[in-house]
Amino acid sequence: MTTAAPPIVRERPRPAPAPGGPSRSPLRRGDPGPAWLFLAPFGIFYLAFLIGPTIFMIVASFFNTSLVHTDLGSFAGFKNYAEMLTRADFWSAMWHTLQFTIYTTPPLVILAFIFAVLTNRVRRGQWFFRLAFFMPYVLPSATISLIWVFVFTPATGLWALVESWFGITPGNGVLANPNTAMIGIAIATVWWTLGFNFVLYLAGLQEIPRELYEAAAVDGASNWAQIRYITLPLLSRTTTLVILLQIIASLKIFDQVYLMTGGGPGISTQVALGLITGTAFTDDRVGAASAASVLLFIVIVAVAVVRQLFDRSAARKEA
Amino acid sequence: MTTVTDSTDVRRPQRVVTGAAPAANGARIGTSGRGFQIVSAIVLIVFAIIWLIPSLFALKTSLTDNGVAALGAGSILKDWNPTLHSYASFFHAGDIWNWYIASAITSVITAVLTVFFASMAAFALSRLRFRGRNFTLLLIVLGIMIPTQVLIVPIFQELNAMNLLNTYWSVIFPQVPAVIAVFIFKQFFDGIPADLEEAARIDGAGRWRVYWSVILPLSRPVLAAVTILTFVGVWNNLLLPLFVLTNPDLMTIPVGLATVQSSYGQRYADIQAGAILAALPLIILYLVFQRQIVEGVTGSGLKG
Amino acid sequence: MATATGLTRRGFLTAGLVGLTLPALAGCADTVSAGLVGSQLNPKTLVYWNLFGGGDGTRMQTMEAGYQKTHGGAASLQSTTFAWGNPYYSKLTLATVGHKPPDVAISHLTRAKPLYDGGILEPITEEHLALVGLKASDFNPTPWNAQKTDGNNIAVPLDTHPLVMFYNVAVLKKAGLIGGDGQVVNLDSMDTFEAALAEISKVTKGPAITSANVGGETATEWRVFWTLYNQNSAATPFLSHDGADLTVNWDVFEDVTSRLQRWVKQGWLNSGLDYATAQSYMFTGKAGMYLEGEWELTTAQLIKGLDFDMAPLPTLYDRPAAQADSHTFVLPKKDRTPEQLEQVMGFIKSMLEQSMTWAKGGHIPAYLPIANSAAYHKLLPQAHYASAAQHAVYDDPAWYGGSGSTFEGIVGAQLGLVQQRAITPAQARQAITDQLKVYLNTPSPL
Asked: A141 in a domain, yes or no?
């Protein structure tokens, strides 16, 4: 890595079918056979475990398919959809997903930003901060959940101990109370996944040309002014990205909820994937679960499309 | 080599890390006042400590006697008789070995298959021209958007029809088509200049040779990053193995810990020892491959 | 340079890891081949799944050890304990659907029915029982008849676990409710019972009786309701036709729930306590009585200096009744050789014969040679409430019903709110009807 390296611009997603193709490659004019051979191994898995299940999910959503029978079951039309869309627990699961997003996104964005900006400016020990903030991200959800359930142990847990230091009488435990259980899950999640946003912001910070700061410093801008008027605006793209990724991740949340509360108390923390797996594997209703899956699928793809559109417009602006 | 890497933007994430090098940093620090430096450092240290506490507390608990741990956090913090008893009882009980093996086998095989197949596909998309190439690219972009977790129910049904439930393959196969890997490889391959492979072509190398002997060796950093990330992703996956592995002997370690109660009952020290044992290989992996992991996460985060 | 050393270090570590992994793999060759080619693991070992934690788990382990001792050592049995509730039954279903079920498993009696309807369980014939010298008359008729489905035996009951009344002897003595035999006096009939509640309240200066109803608890509310509801001679099934019809007698529902609300209003019954706190009230004398399944006996016995006893819930309405379920042994569907069948039945027999160990945890043995034995009759306080098993009332069969099921979750949550007096009985009725609609209108997937 030399300083002579050309200034690195932000990664620019190319429009999917790259116009003109890789014109530098001499191999492009071949017979199609070998190309398909290169694609086939991945393609088989792609068809078998992405496209196939997607189609089966859509088909099954129109039938009363049962887990314990091998056939599709009787035709249900849109009944499964109608059921899901009118079920209180479906909407409450969607609401809990939103609630989780609302609880986790601000701390994940703000704390990750602050930690990254500060880490980027300290003279030594960056490795230590990277370790502290990022390491939890590589740990299994099972480890995270076992640790945090223990921290939240009613009355005798670490959380209760800290509460008592601050003169708060520990209650029945964060996770046992329907009003606070989701907050407990959110705290564990922020602790777990902050590292991801942290390194994204660090990466973004490396791309800001230092001349900007130098010029600002010459003009007498304070550190805070530099952050406010240079760092913050230049990282806005990363911030949008982080928020969108967090929304998508929230829609797919399962592990922490399953392991920490099992969707409880009651159904106060039940989320979409918990409802889907419960409907399919406990109620044995694959058809109804498929309808719920399709609905969730549509929501997630919609957010992903927004993301693609956003990426493209951002890329166009830069270009 | 230098020219190759420096002229491609796929190496960019690398800079994220090397940006920590004194040269780049020194200049930036010139713009920060001393007071600001100190405040920054204090704030960071406080938060870093807060961030470390849960892990350290779990570690401390795992080294405490079960009886003491049952008395609560205060007793755990005051206890100074560390013991490896909880770890010993885990290894003695034996389940953990089966779970480690399941996790290791599924993670390694998935990583190898994913990297191999995805890089082949990416090579075709980046280097070969064929009919349906644009359509294939479109499928890749669409594939990135498919939330695989949502497919858990049909995937279960499909694996059952294939008679693969309760085998390692039921965990491996559905995780092989990681479309994001194709995307990352393609971006990297696109940045490799054509002259290198032209030389090989002149020497009479076929497509396979170009892929195997020219492209792959030049792609070591991205191969390493995708391999490690796939490994970590499979190791940490809960949803899929939770439903496709019901035999306690074949469970991966997160599933085993999460579902099999007899492994620890309600003994806090044992539970925390289990949590740490599940994470231990990843902690080691992180310490060894820190750079690749951070690069890979940044790269795939920005793209995926 | 740095990379070079980095690579060697990495190479060294990789070599080390491989070096460590290979022998480990070789050591577990059976497991690995099972995972890779689906070969069967230890075909001789009996695989048994259960859901017992806490004191039950410890006693079950003792019984398993008893089996192993007489059946060829540790290798004869592999027992796995899962967290109980829906996830357990899901696992059992998924394993059987995926052709890799355990040889034998524990199931609640009320959950065995939907499993059987779904084709997950094999019927247990008289011939199967005869293999190890068992017959229908060896079992308490209440659970035995309850497990019969479509004329088939689907489960072998191990016990009956009814809702019972725990009481703090010191508190009740002060309230003048302890008779000459040291046990609670007869409190049958509503007036007698309410008068007793009033007396106890005076002693405790707080609630007379506690029953968990917050903190995610839904099962206890259901158990209490179902007990009192079925003490009415006008009680009808809550659900009929495998869960297709809601046939609860709403008048009785109204009567029971408003009665509970009245107790709360009088300060006799707690308005909101979670599971652990509800029992600690009775343990510490803040309340005189406590309603829960008899399994909390183990917890109560661990409280130093607590003088407590247990009794069936008094008959407040027309007839005795106690909500109950049974732990049963079930045979998941799989191909079995005659030897394997005999092995499984032998295991069940061995567990039944060790029912005395099991009974120490509070459960009432279903196996009559133990339940009728002098040793069991001498076991206290078990003998004081054992008659509750005769009046056990199980949950109605429904594909979404049974212990810890969706049904109990929905109804129990509303009953919990009623007890908090957050909603009226009429509102609870409305909410229950609304929330059950999905399930009532859905044809059983089984």
From this structure: yes
How many domains in chain B? Answer: 1
Run of H or E residues at C239: strand C239-240
Helix (H) or strand (E) holding B219: none
- The tokens describing A166, both together, are 């601050």
CA neighbours closer than 13 Å in the CB half-sphere of residue A133: 30
DSSP C407: H
Backbone angles phi, psi at C386, to 5 degrees: -60, -25
**Residue numbers of C between 154 and 193 with CB closer than 8 Å to B:** none
**Is B259 at the interface with chain C, CB within 8 A?**
yes
The three-class DSSP label of residue B118 is helix
CA dihedral C168, C174, C177, C181 (to 10 degrees): 80
Q: Which residues of A touch B157 (CB under 8 A)?
A: 56, 60, 286
CATH number at residue C437: 3.40.190.10
CA–centroid distance for A90 within its chain: 21
Do the bridges between strand C239-240 and strand C245-246 make them parallel or antiparallel, or are there none, so unpaired? Answer: antiparallel
Residue C383 lies in a domain: no
Q: Specify the DSSP element, H or E, that contains C160.
A: strand C159-168
A231, part of any domain: yes
- Print the domain residue range for B150: 94-263
Q: Quick one: C184 and C300 in the same domain?
A: yes
Alpha-carbon distance of A283 to A289, in angstroms, equals 9
CATH number for the domain that contains residue A248: 1.10.3720.10
Q: In angstroms, rounded to a whole number, what is the distance separating the alpha carbons of residues C90 and C82?
A: 11
d(CA B157, CA C232): 46
- Residues of chain C positioned with their CB less than 8 A from the CB of B98: 28, 31
Angle in degrees, CA A156, A160, A166, rounded to 5: 140
Q: How confident is the model at residue A108 (pLDDT cuts 50, 70, 90)?
A: very high
CB-based contact B286 A226, cutoff 8 Å: no
Q: How far is CA A293 from the centre of its chain?
A: 18
| Whole-number Cα distances in Å, C73 to C45, C104, C356 | 10, 18, 22
* Facing residue for B129 by CB, picked from A29, A119, A145: A29
Q: What is the distance between the alpha carbons of residues B209 and B190, in angstroms, rounded to a whole number?
A: 18
Q: How many domains does chain A have?
A: 1
Total tally of structural domains belonging to chain C: 3
Q: Give chain C's residues under pLDDT 70.
A: 1-27
Q: Tell me how far apart the alpha carbons of residues B279 and B274 are, in angstroms, rounded to a whole number.
A: 9
Helices B268-288 and B95-127: crossing angle in degrees, nearest 10, is: 30
Phi, psi torsion values for C140, nearest 5 degrees: -55, 125
Note whether C357 and C64 are within 8 A (CB).
no
Domain of residue B254, CATH code: 1.10.3720.10
The strand pair at C308-312 and C159-168 is best described as: antiparallel
Q: How confident is the model at residue A20 (pLDDT cuts 50, 70, 90)?
A: very low
Q: What domain range includes position C135?
A: 46-160+326-378
What ipTM is given for this predicted complex? Answer: 0.84
- Residue-wise pLDDT tens digits, B53-98: 999 999 999 999 888 887 888 888 888 888 898 898 888 877 888 9
Q: Which chain B residues touch C32 with a CB distance below 8 Å?
A: 101, 105
Q: C340, C359, C378: which is the final residue of a domain?
A: C378
